C-alpha cells in the first residue's frame, strides 16, 4: 500500500490506480458491522432500495406494505456507532400512500427534491420530497413491476414502466402523460433499465424469456433481442431459439460504463452480454439460484478492478467477479430472502433489504493494526512520536 | 474439528427456526466470527509477489485451482479413465460430462474457452445428452470414430456412416444437424429419395437422433443405456448424501463407501457429476471437503 502511495506521489502511477486498488480491497472486505445499523421502520418485507446519485447521502426504501421511507446515511455524530435514521416516512396513515406493495422506488436523477415509486396498486406516483405528497399519479391497467428513469438523460425525461401488460410504457415527466408504447414482448415485463451510456437506449426483460434492447427514437420496434446461444441454432431446442434465458428473465443491470449488461433468470443462470451488439460473452457464473417471481434487483460495483456484481441469492448476497464469473464470497446475515441490494460507490458499502424487514449495511473492514513483538515495543516506545502514516505496517518480515 | 462443525451447522441451519429464540445481535456476532475464520480475501494487486512455500499448507481443503495453468485436456484424459468400458462391452467410447470438469477446475469460463478451442481443432466432440438442457457429453473424436465404425461392422448402413464420419464430422462443429447442411455437404445429388433414405440410415445406425422436422441431434450410438445408468446412479449417490446426518458427508468418506446395485459406474464419476451440476454444495473444512445436499 505504501508502494502505491509513493508511486502516486511521485507521479509514476496514474491517480486512478491507487483509487481502484483501494476500492477493490474494500469491496473484498465487506462485512456486517456492529457499529452501523439502519433504522427499522418497515413491518413487512423490503422490496426495493435506492441511493441518490448526487451526494450519496439519502436512501429510499419501498416495502411490501406500501410504506416508503427516506434514510440519512451520513454519520454526523462523531462516534463510530451509528444508526441510519429515517428522515421521513410515507406511512400507512398518509392519505396518499400506495395501497399495495411498492415494487420500485427511484430518486429523480438530478436532485433529491423528487422521487418516483411504482406499486402493485397499478399506479406510479411522482412524489415531492418536501411535502411527501404526490405531484403526479400515472394509472395503469396491470400491476407495475418496475420503472426506471435514465440517469444521464438531458434531452428527455421519460420514465420507462414495465407492467403486467406486454407493452412497455414510456411516461413523460414534463407533460405528465404516457406518450409512447413499445411493443414486442409476449409476456409480462419484469424489469426495465436505461443504459448509463446512451440516453435513448433501453433494455427490457420479460417472462417470455427474452430481453429486448430498444432505441426509443425508433418507431418500428426493438433493436435486437439477446440470444443466449449467439445465433448458434444447434445448441437450443427449437422452442428456446432467440431467448436470453430458459425461464423468466427477472433481473437486469448495466455496468457503470454501460458497455455490458447483466441478466438473471429463473433458470438459475446469470449472463453477461455485450450491450453494443447483444452477444453473450459466455462468462459462466455457475448456478445463481433465483426463485423470485417478480423482479430481482442486482447491482454492480463501481471503480474497482475487477468489477464485482452483487446478486441476492436466497437469504444471502452472492458476490461474483464480473468478467471471470468466479464466486468471491456469500454475504450471509439476513434471516429470510433478500430482495434487493444497492452499492454505495463513494464508500464501497452495500445495503441489502429483504423479507425479514431489515436493511443491512455491509461495511468494509478497517485494516487491523499490526501487532508488534515485545522487543520492538520497548524500542518503539522511544520513537512514539513517529507519524503513523510513515509506519511500515504492511511489508512482511521476510522482505 | 468439533467447534468448526458446530459453527458450520449453526450457520448452515435454517435460521428461520431460531430467530424467535435469539436476537439479532447474537446471531450477527456468530456470523461475524464464522466469517473471520476464513482467510481475508486479498485482491491480486496486494498479494505479495514471492511464493510463501510451506507457510500456507492447508491441510483440509485442497485448492486445485492454484496448482498451475489450466489444462483441460489432461483433466479430460484423467476423467475418461473413470468411465467403465467393460460395462458396455466396449461398444461405447469413453464419455465425460462437461460439468464434471467444473468440479475440478474453479474457473468455469476458462474451462469453457479451452473446450471450445479443442472442439475447433477437431479433437473433441460435444453431444447433447437429452435428459437435461445443460448436460453435454464429451468424447474424443478419434475414440468416437473408432467405436462407431466398429459397431457398424457387417451392417448395411456402414457405407453411409463411413462417408458421414469422413466428410461431415470434421467440418461440422455444431451439436445438431439440419436438412440444408445435410444436402449441401453430404450428398452430391439432391434427389429427395436418396436424402430421405440416407438420413433414415444414419438415424438407424444411432449417429443422429431426431430433434425436429428436418433437423437432428448428433449422438452416440447405444448411449441410451449410459444415460439410464447415469441417472440411476446419480439418484442413488444423492440419496446417500441425503440420508446422512445433517444431509452432509465428507467427500473422502463418500468415495470409500460401498455402492449398491443401483450404482453401476465408479462412485468418483458420480461425485464429479453431482458437484459439477451443483446438486450438492462443496464446503471446505479443516477435515476435508464436505458435500452438503442443496435442497430446493
Description:
The complex is a heterodimer of chains A (399) and B (296). With 399 residues, chain A is mainly β. Chain A has one domain: YVTN repeat-like/Quinoprotein amine dehydrogenase (Methylamine Dehydrogenase, Chain H), CATH 2.130.10.10. In chain A, 8% of the residues lie in helices and 39% in strands. Chain A is built from three helices and 29 strands. Chain A has helices spanning 2-10, 15-28, 374-382; strands spanning 30-32, 36-38, 46-51, 58-63, 68-72, 82-84, 86-90, 102-107, 114-119, 123-128, 133-139, 144-149, 158-163, 168-172, 177-182, 189-194, 201-206, 211-215, 224-225, 249-254, 260-265, 269-274, 299-300, 308-313, 316-321, 327-332, 338-344, 349-354, 359-364. In chain A, the strands form eight sheets. A four-stranded antiparallel β-sheet of chain A has the order 1-29-28-27. In chain A, strands 3-4-5-7 form a four-stranded antiparallel β-sheet, with no helix packed on it. A four-stranded antiparallel β-sheet of chain A has the order 8-9-10-11, with no helix packed on it. In chain A, a hairpin with a 4-residue loop joins strand 17 and strand 18. In chain A, 43% of the residues are buried. Residues 374-384 of chain A have low confidence and may be disordered. Chain B is α+β, with helices and mostly antiparallel strands. Helix content of chain B is 46%, strand content 13%. Chain B contains twelve helices and nine strands. Chain B has helices at residues 2-12, 24-37, 72-80, 98-102, 108-121, 141-151, 158-171, 179-186, 192-205, 224-243, 251-256, 267-276, and strands spanning 96-97, 124-128, 136-140, 176-178, 208-212, 215-218, 248-250, 280-285, 288-293. A three-stranded antiparallel β-sheet of chain B has the order 1-3-2. In chain B, strands 4-6-5 form a three-stranded antiparallel β-sheet. A three-stranded antiparallel β-sheet of chain B has the order 7-9-8. In chain B, a hairpin with a 7-residue loop joins strand 2 and strand 3. In chain B, helix 7 (158-171) packs across helix 9 and helix 10 packs across helix 12 (267-276). Mean pLDDT of chain B is 74; it is low at 1-22, 33-38 and 48-67. Chains A and B meet through helix 2 and strand 26 of A and helix 2, helix 5 and strand 4 of B.
